[in-house]
Amino acid sequence: MAVRFILDGDVIEIADPDPTGTLLDHLRGPLSRIGTKEGCAEGDCGACTVLLGELAGEQVNWRAVNSCILFLPMIHGKALMTVESLAGGGALNPLQACMAANGSSQCGFCTPGFVMSLHGRAIGAIGCDLPLPDVIAGNLCRCTGYGPILEAGEKGAHIAQDDTATIAALRSIADGEMASGTVGPRRWFAPRSADQLAAVLAEHPGARIVAGATDVGLWVTKGLKEIEALVFIGDVADLAGITEYDTGLTLGAAVRYADAHAPLARLHPDLGELVRRIGGLQVRNSGTVCGNIANGSPIGDGPPALIALGASLTLRSAKGRRTIPLEAYFIDYGQQDLQPGEFVESVFIPRPAPDAVIHVAKLSRRFDSDISAVLGAFAFTVNDGTITAARVAFGGMAATPRRAAGCEAALTGRPFTEQTITAAAEALRADFAPLTDVRGTAAYRLDAAAALLWRLWHREQGAAVSVLSVEA
């Protein structure tokens, strides 16, 4: 089956696409759109940023994404905008003209990516209702020329976007059917419903599920891994739901971090700040909350915070559903409680009580767009000065995201005092035997974990501790 998408009003068709061929390679190759650059091939630098549009009723929802790790089947039925799309009749658009006039471009390699991120903000793309520095945090300038780029972004703050033709073109290629294809021994599927997904996995239990490809993309571009069967779930409508209850929040498996940002922030501000630092905007526009869980990484930012809040995971297959505590999903490094043909359907995060003591803190070598060295998450219930319940979870401290049982025991039933924190911090050191790697030594991680507990204590005593501002 061919992949079809809209580029500047035209229908582009790719017959028999390589299911792990990247959009970037297709742009720079067959389409000769060489303005889009390859800087890192891992979704980190933003030089390859494009805007991808999805039809949503009477409008197109645009979002900035990294084309270097976006597989071709993932753009089926969507609209695409590259840097070449912006200049009409050879004339620069207002944002490009502003960048040229104020010297925003130095070596120029990263410039197209910056232009696309800023254009996304100017037209009101998904996730761009953030301060300008946050919008371009996923774009790296190796010449350190951010000042003029920020100035251009502010001057070109709003651009009218007429999507009338794009809407008509998207409707012309929409068929509502499950897409699939076979290229030699390799197969791919793009189901449109969870029932279709369950049926595909029942027949192909070894197929690799791909949501945003922010992890699997690197298996291909960096690890050169060949994957025989892939199932793309980005178009599974009944996995894209966000439901807020008085009791908590349910996120479907296809909900991207950019879309979950505001609902998670409403659960607790620390969750909002955590999401703000999960990659750049392009990564949050592709990567999903449940994908971050499903891949089982010991340094995934989302799972420790959700474990501390008591989240539960719903797993589904053609045989039915089961719900488990989130922490039970992680068995060992690379091993999760997932049966053949089963997939993560949703996660439910309980709403913290108004008087709960919640703190989530991430330590990384670089503040933005970096992997955690240590991530600590704490959720206490305190009644009349006594800690009646405590959940403490960490990432980067073990082979999986894990609770700190000894620390929790040292806290529970004890007065919320400096003496209790001292004892709990000591118990915490016995909960983990972390590894030494490029992000930190074992000794550093143990000291940092204890320091994050102390950080919570000082914040609760009124100290001016900024949320998630500590760096390794």
UniProtKB/TrEMBL annotation:
Gene Ontology MF, one: iron ion binding
Its EC number(s): 1.17.1.4
Principal EC category: oxidoreductase
Keyword list, A-Z: FAD, Flavoprotein, Iron, Metal-binding, Oxidoreductase
Keyword set includes Oxidoreductase: yes
Source organism superkingdom: Bacteria
Domain spans labelled FAD-binding PCMH-type: 181-354
Pfam families per the UniProt record, alphabetical: CO_deh_flav_C, FAD_binding_5, Fer2, Fer2_2
2Fe-2S ferredoxin-type domain location: 1-86
Protein name (database record): Xanthine dehydrogenase small subunit
